[in-house]
Fold this protein.
Amino acid sequence: MLATPAATLARASSPERIASLDYGAATTLLALGLPPVAVADAADWDVWVVDPALPAGIVDLGDDLEPNMELLAAIRPELILLTPYLAPLAPTLERIAPVMTLTIYAEDGRPLARAEAQTLELAARIGRIDAARAFLAEADATFAALRARLAGIAVPPLALVNFMDARHARVFGRHGLYQDVLDRLGLVNAWSGPTNFWGFRTIGIEELSRVPDAAALVAFEPVPPAILPTLRASPLWRALPFVRENRVSTLPGVLMFGMVPSALRFARLLTEHLTRRA
């Protein structure tokens, strides 16, 4: 049974002990100079987030949909961060500490703009508004500088994918964080087909034939080891123009449902990759 003193339930004016059930919120806390005391799925951080690194000593709360509530209560957080995806947990979490929900994905399909706005709201809640303004100003300057670096390079339309197996992939397009980054960098997404609420579509590999012939394909790690050898043996895969003309690349993992830190990571990785290839 979860039991918490009333003082813990009261909203702290500037909470410092913050638990996050969302990777994107956790990276934002790190960017604001206030590491979380606990994170859900911390064991997989190095697979999906990679950078920034998760500081040592942060407690792993386990699966985000079924966090260890007893452990969370024992940590005595002053604030718990989650997203609408985890809304069913809110009533239980509120018995431990105040809850703040950060909404990045919504019907307007503008996750990066929402991430920037939510960064300011979070910063106001935790007393880090100056740090947030400085961070967002630096992010704007970084996007502008990277866009300028790419301006003189002939970059083909880019198909962004995450391989699920040798027959299926997630392809990223409208309404997603990756699309917003492409827009900031002045680049074109090769996938103009429909996407879901989260900005991706699960497709069969054969559907990549719908991207323009001049496109390049960029896959994100992790790529299961057996997938690429299997694809190379497939006549269908070898017939795709970007495969025939050696326009397939792999980037390190970037959190697809992240906030501003993940957008910056993608922008930097992609710019470095494209300038090297040029």
